[in-house]
User: Fold these one by one.
Assistant:
Number 1:
Amino acid sequence: MTQVVLITGATSGFGMAAAKRFAKAGWSIVISGRRKERLEQLADEISAEANVLIMPLDVRDSDAVKEAIKSLPKEFLPLNAVINNAGLALSPKPAQEVDLEDWHTMIDTNVKGLVNVAHATLPSLIEAGEGATMINVGSIAGQWPYPGSHVYGASKAFVKQFSYNLRCDLLGTGVRVTDLAPGIAETEFTLVRTKGDQAASDKLYQGTTPLSAEDIAEQMFYITTLPSHICINRVEVMPTRQAWSAFAIDRD
């Protein structure tokens, strides 16, 4: 029986790479994102390998999320996996210089959007039963603070704890939940965070070897296809060339 995966934030980065990886393995795929034209392009690219359904959707709209999941065709049900990937970072400036609207956007997307998708898809995952998997995409920023992380890091800390708490509530259902927390990865992430500053994005990745979207997609596929009795609670993935710094100290 064909496995079905729903991927949010599939218009770029981790989500797009995940769609290609699962398609390669022959899964049926529901790809979701706000940019319909990108979803259509992606569907065209992978449709030779997989049955694909596009779902233009803003995860911040709880009613739209509910209706979209409720309206899934029978051939895309039940969901065997949900890649809860839609999210973003904004304003890498110090907290005292950030527009409040940017904080609200991160909370609405990374927290509210994530729980909207989780709440709407859990019944289908439970129906699928043993081996069904929800991957919530967090970040090392949810564990380790750094300047300019403010609400972004706090939102990813929510992802971590929410995933752990779901594990407790889902005990006995066969459904697995993983917080997948990447480190520095070269995607559109920094372009979005800096509102289109290509130079800032190039500078961040210059002279090092960051993770790629494909690296994270491979982790997603691995987690999802483990034997059903194995659940990885959290995966923190950093490139070899990234590590922690000493504590900052303010001096006179």
Number 2:
Amino acid sequence: MRTLIQGILLAAVAAAAVTAPPLQAAEQVFFSFDDHSIPLQHNLKLTLVPVTKHPDNPVLRRGPAGAPDHGHAVLYGTVLKEGDTFRMWYLGMHETENKSGQAAGWWRPMCYAESKDGVHWTKPELGLYEFNGSKKNNICLIESDLYSLTRVNDFLSVMHDPEDPDPSRRYKCAYIAHQPFEDVKGGRSKIGPNEKRWGAFVCATSADGLTWKVVGDRPANAGGERFEVSGLYKFGDFYYGTGQLLSPWVSRADGSDVGRVMLAYRSPDFVTWSKAKAFSMARPGQLANPPAKGQQMHMGAGLWNRGNVMVGLHGMWQDAEAKPPKGESWNYGVRIDLGLCVSNNGIHFREPVAGFPMIARGKEGEAWDDIGILQGHAFVNEGDKTMIWYSHWDTGGKLKTMEIGLGTLRRDGFGYVSNQVAENEAEFITTTFTGGKVSLNVDGVTADAPLTVQLLDHLDQPIEGYEVKVTKNGLHEAVGFAKPLPAGKKVALRVVFPAGSGAKVYAVYVE
């Protein structure tokens, strides 16, 4: 069985490696909520659109007793679509030590699932790892000379890197391992409390996404501070590992304490990582004076690389209103929704609308996802929809319905701009770009109230012969200029909404 499954997957991976587009996509996306890509606006308002939850949620459930994901099945992980197959890497949970030498904390094995529609999932018997006396399970194999580096304890992020010339490195992942201090080659910083385990930022590579080899003999953050990595992507010339920390390992700019915030490390080669880190994002209330009570950012963000921009969902943590009752979990009463974030440099992220829940937890006591929502790196554009997978976290520690759900949006429909004062004209101007074909993700346009699209030079002056009316709606409605854009010249777009327009512009695309 293992030979058959491995052969099929390796063949699919090989084909994907040949046909997959480069990571830095040929298409630039100027989202309506991205005020760096669309910096100049007049009489426009931004409306974010919350995700619609699938009626069959949760779409991937935990396994039966004895399965590696019986404790829970959570999208501390990733969903990618390759060819006609959705591939999911997620974490199960095993509550007891599987071998001598395991670091403290639950072992959360890297599990694998597949789907043809993103809704109905199968858990193939990979035959790679013996669990409860059998290899008939969906656990991926992680290999290293140091056993504690192979034990995933928390968040997992997988990326496909088809541009890597080494086929054995075309899948990359990062995860947290709670290593014993004595296992940390290269030492660690003395900042922070004297814990019994260390938050290790571990990297691994794979040819097929199923059998993994740890990079090197130590964590990426060896010699530095603990780090709870939760994200991995390539942007420009660097790989980035993002995740969370809180004081005393990180502070606000003035040195004062801060709760959970997102940090980023980077590497040019996926082997050597920066010791210095970037303060990537905090929720606005965390940086206020005084800080908003109980507001934190949970586990950085689940991220989607769109070539010229990073978009994602971050955990909007809110502390419990009171201390946990005696005998309850330390984070009993914590509630988490997911908010939208965006970055134009792969390092610094921001919320387009502070505090807006793109995926809100369900109604208390009634919904399967009513306590805390967990983000994954799980975004796929499929047909006319953007599909987003997420998980539920029972912060009370009872593992209640900790499974995986699906939400959808209009394709790239996270939000739109429209006339703020309906009876007045409105407009926006994009950042500059060079060459290419232009199209709009737009709705609400009519023949009687079309959008006017002008091409501007780098000094905002209209270029003669480049003005058209857009009268049709669509997810990728072409802007039909009469001639190709000027080659090699920096240009921008002005999009004008007439008075009384009901148009909604979700995104501008430049191919």
Number 3:
Amino acid sequence: MLTAKLTSMWRSRYEICNADTVIAVWDGKSWTSGGDFVLDGRTYKIRANGWGTKYSMTDDRETVVAEAERVGRKQWRVHAGGRTFEFVRDSIWRGGDEQLMDGETVVGRIRRTSTWRGDVAADLPGLPVPVQIFVLGVVITNWNNQAAAAG
């Protein structure tokens, strides 16, 4: 399971941990949707279209590693490594948590662990670690965009 701890109240910067070890730092963009992170010496860039509904992640060779579509909808998808991963937004009463689905079965979840601090936990079995961080970054960015639109 990955956890993301907000490191600054002024920026969208999160330490991404796996078993309490920092493995990456998500550095969200202030004026655009997306962000960057470095994992195992490789730089990944995440960028969105103008509406923030489609995201792509490229590695340091500019190769597309993962893509997300229909972000912000109740149901959305991630394509990576020749596979498609389906996500469904949980009930509004659960703070907009996201569920990783296998058919009708929930197999993973992204949830806020601290509303005040903005910390997040992601349990996404079956996804490679860079793709887990991509999904985590997309969800954090989407939550931040929704909060900015509401405020």
Number 4:
Amino acid sequence: MTAEHHRHLAMKSVEAISTWKACWPVWEVEILGRTNGLSDAKKIHELGDHLRDVFFATNTGNRDQGSLSGGGAGWESLVTWYLNLVLSGTNAVAMRQSKAVVPRTLLDATTISYGNNQTNTESDVCVVVYPNDFNFPATDRDFAKNLDLEIAKRIASIELGIIQCKTNWNDNAQIPMLWDMVYRASFGSATGIHIGKNGYNVSNLKRFTYSFVTVPSQKGPKMPNKPTQMAVKRVNNLTGGNYWGMATKNGVALSASEIFDRNFSSAFSKNIRASIQDAIDGKIGLFS
């Protein structure tokens, strides 16, 4: 088997979400119209410039707490789908945070302990990049268990990117800033803070990044749009960068389409658009 089986499992998990089931029929029409029916590699890559418009296609204008929660799950799912679309045919897989699809070793490596309390970051999505010679399980039987065993053996060759996805930028920018600081820091025993468990730590990985991807849901003057604004400053120096579902605005945010070059370039054996075209032609991954 290949990374495509892991991608298949990751997307099955997304497709089971009620918000995805409700929104996908509308989003799919938007996406197909913007990408010539998923046949244009350039437009597929550039879809990251338009994810906000796709996301808002299902916007009812309802801002109660229930709709916000649903919106958050929808945004995480849409970002996961877009990542896996572009990564189709590569050795990189995007997953929503779930014990069912995220290998145990990677969950252990990113666990934060404070005293006797353990928690994982608010990682809505994570991307694992496997080395080219990675030995994927040969059969579907016990796939997740055997995949994790191989990851544990090859952790020094694994790259991991954690991506926090939020619809509202202003209300959430401080969260990825603080998590990124925690993962960067080295703590003495007196602090009671420890990164990793069961012998695994993010420092064992070949590469680790922490990113923020927002819609953003704000409109007009409420939307962060200047480098001097606090919401922008808070995510300006994340190890993995700050992105939104629109075209890049210098000093403010990068298009979601730029996350591949910035964080996951090692997954591609050729340029990104050529890789997408190969997946289209070969009907690989989400193009199958």
